[in-house]
Fold this protein.
Amino acid sequence: MLKTKIIAADLQNLTDARYFAAWLVDYMSFNLSEESANLSKIKEMMDWVEGPIFSAQYTGSEDLQNIEAQLEALSINHLILGPFANENIINSDWQVTKTILLDDDIRELAFDRTYIAQSTVAFSEFSQKKLDTLKKLCNSHSIYLDCGFSSTDIHSILNVGITGLVLRGSEEEKVGVKSYENLDEILEALED
């Protein structure tokens, strides 16, 4: 069991899906905002693993009918929306996690929503102001952190009070072959 919840985002291959499933992550998310999103490949990955909640990632500028058709085809009802998403696309039947940019000034957030606080700055380089902002958000909202970090940052990250972390899948070196050394170190540091 891990010390915090995990969203495995940007999954692109079965190797990633099986890897994250073995670590019992809470969410597996597929980027469906790309024109090249292969629904049959995503469905195949979903069929191979059990346990996590499956999510669809969108920038939020996509056509609502296209989103609805993809979600129905994959039987997904959890969305991760980008920071510039049009909130009008949200259907009340969907569970939504909204991305906010930690590098920007953050306006008032809805209390009934989960957020991903995303930063282009690595956690080890956060200013005190950025850390204070993140702590304040964590005190009033369910917040997943999405930024660069290493296994040595885990203790400090958990002390901020986050709900969870976002880890990302990536391309395979070749089919079925991939190094997970960095992710292994992070996930081992998160083990109870």
Notes: Strands lie at 5-9, 27-31, 53-58, 78-81, 95-101, 114-118, 142-146, 164-168. Helices lie at 14-22, 39-48, 64-74, 128-140, 154-160, 181-189. The two ends are 6 Å apart (CA to CA).
